[in-house]
Write a structure and sequence with these properties.
118 residues; alpha+beta; Aspartate Aminotransferase, domain 1; 38% helix; globular
Length: 118
């Protein structure tokens, strides 16, 4: 597997066949939640920038897909993400479970809202 990628397509193409469609779903959910966000590679994984600043990252692993960072959100939001929390700044979505695309979109929207507040 190549350790340096120039595009998200390169990154996704380097992953196993079972994780590639899941990564594409995550990518689409992020694009829909953050219209106008720019795709990039940062820290050797897919990332999206909004207004020139990095907004969200995602990565594929053998048994899960991760999303970084985790926004603070309110109590209700934290309850929704708790089953997927893996440390302070990471959400893990197991490959053997349905992907919660609505939750991924909510995470991205929350990150945008928190950025606007400064």
């Amino acid at each position: 597997m190549t350790s340096t990628f120039t595009t998200i397509d390169d990154y996704i193409g380097s992953q196993g066949a079972e994780v590639q469609p899941v990564l594409q779903q995550v990518r689409r959910a992020i694009c829909e939640a953050a219209p106008g966000a720019e795709e990039t590679i940062s820290y050797k994984i897919p990332a999206f920038k909004l207004n020139g600043e990095e907004l969200v990252y995602f990565a594929g692993w053998k048994h899960h897909v991760s999303l970084y960072p985790v926004p603070k959100g309110d109590a209700a939001f934290r309850r929704r993400i708790d089953p997927y929390r893996a440390g302070k700044g990471t959400l893990k979505f197991p490959l053997k479970q349905p992907l919660p695309l609505d939750l991924i979109a909510s995470v991205v929207q929350q990150l945008i809202a928190e950025r606007r507040k400064g």
